[in-house]
Amino acid sequence: MPRTLKPCRRKKTISFRKLISPLRRILKGIIPLVSRGNRKLQMTFEDQLNDLIYFHLEDRTSGRDLIQSLKEDEFLREHIAPEKGIEKSSFFEAVNSRGLKQLTQVFDALSQEAHTLLPGEHTDLGDLVSVDGSLIDATLSMAWADYRKGAKKAKVHVGFNLNQSIPSKIFLTNGKEGERPFVEKIVAKGQTAVIDRGYQGHKNFDMWQKEGIHFVCRIKEDTKKEATITNEVSPGSIVFYDAVTHLGAGISKTERQVRLVGYCVQGKDY
Question: Residues with Cβ < 8 Å from 130, sequence gap 6 or more?
Answer without folding.
Answer: 159, 160, 162, 193, 194, 195
